[in-house]
Amino acid sequence: MNNAIAGFSKLSKEEKIKWIANAYFSNSNEAIALLKNYWNTDSKLQQLHDDFIENTVTNFYLPLGVAPNFLINAKYYTIPMVIEESSVVAAAAKSAKYWSTRGGFKASVINTEKIGQVHFIFKGETSKLIDFFKSAKSKFFEATESITKNMQKRGGGILDIELRNKSNLIPNYFQLHATFETKDAMGANFINSCLEQFAKTLQQEARNYDAFSDEEKNIEVIMSILSNYVPNCIVRAEVSCKIEELADKNIENPQEFAEKLIRAVQIAEVEPFRAVTHNKGIMNGIDAVVLATGNDFRAVEAGIHAYASRSGSYSSLSHAKIEDGIFYFWIEIPLPLGTVGGLTALHPLVRFCLTMLENPSAKALMQIVAVAGLAQNFAALRSLTTTGIQEGHMKMHLNNILNQFETNDSERILIKNHFKNNAVSHSAVVAFIESLRK
Question: Distance from CA of residue 350 to its chain's centroid?
Fold first, then answer.
């Protein structure tokens, strides 16, 4: 069957759904009913969601959970988390409660610089290009005044523009490398608008530069785009306490626990196969809050993983040590976040989550998100170095298995009581369900 279609985007929503159902499903009515079951009954709210992207046919739900008791810089937060993975929210909440009695989390923003580049080809003498850039640099700022005016009122704007020679990598390849401060905005549209104007100004000024030959005047702009790698937009989050204070009902020997956890971190610092999984656990916490607050988790992911590779080898984002009898555990990561513009102003649940966080500035949100990542990492490392990761995870996963087999209320009670003292695995749960139903 040929399922190609012309003019799909011009179809109405109903027509798109009908085409998909008829093209791919044996029971088209059932497929249509499923999609419509996820529509919001409030038509205005549904239209708002439809307009977020193109070719919308329905909503795709993810759970919004909360992790309370996060003590960050002496203030308590309840952190919203959007994620589908079992045990992530529970682990974050457990870490929050644990560290709330040990001084809480400390967080600070080190820098908030963002980056954009104009990539271009210049076939001529590099020394002449350098002289040209020096003479024309002020023109780039002047040409973008109308774009930067409002941002400057909020204390942001263009910080600097550099000419970078990359011709050792690609012949005749150069960059205008610009740095920006976007305050509480994510700033993508602002940065890209500035960059596109830089490109126009670059070509215009080059054509009017008398020292250039005709060929040199013809600068070829390849593209103008922000970078999601922001190694100078860094936030630090940390916890610390005396080693003996690490003790609780599951940690009988705090010295041994601290040393083992540090070894686990050291392995992630030197072994990329472990570091990827180690950092994925950190991103469980980070992505969940980034999603809940309407930020771009894909940009955050890309930038953070690039940062984890900055030494030339992929490594752990978190670090730990013992110094003078004190246990320290910390993370430093790039987090270009915003609390105004985009979905933060449009999505009702994003507004709800930001209100629950007491309407943080971008810097405050950076700290909260970094703490969520650190808390998630501590919970994972604690499990790995003590009971093992599967015990807690599979107990949280039990509900998914029960839903999969459509267990009733009485079956759920019997199953959960049985697995209070028995190891949870998919096969063990299925076998017990089958035994109940015989």
Answer: 15
Place of tokens 């929503």: 13
pLDDT tens by residue, 152-203? 999 999 999 999 999 999 999 999 999 999 999 999 999 999 999 999 999 9
What single string gives the DSSP state of each residue in 385-425? HTT-HHHHHHHHHHHHHHHHTT--HHHHHHHHHHTTSS---
Distance CA(66)–CA(89), nearest Å, equals: 7
Distance (Å, whole) CA 132 – CA 52: 43
Question: Is 357 within 8 Å of 79 (Cβ atoms)?
Answer: yes
Q: Please state, in angstroms and rounded to a whole number, the distance separating the CA atoms of residues 132 and 297.
A: 39
Cα 391 to Cα 99, 379, 388, distances in angstroms: 22, 13, 6
Sheet holding 173-181, edge to edge: 157-165, 173-181, 114-121, 220-227
Phi, psi of 51 (to 5 degrees): -80, -10
* pTM summary value: 0.88
User: Token digits for 147?
Assistant: 């774009």
Please list the residues that pair with 114 across neighbouring strands.
180
Closest CA to 144 of 165, 164, 161: 161
Which parts of 268-334 are beta strand (E)? 318-323, 326-334
Q: Which of 198, 209, 143 has its CA nearest to residue 175? A: 198
Q: Which one-letter DSSP state was computed for residue 75?
A: E
Catalytic residues: 85, 280, 296, 393
In angstroms, how far is CA 344 from the centroid of its own chain?
Answer: 15
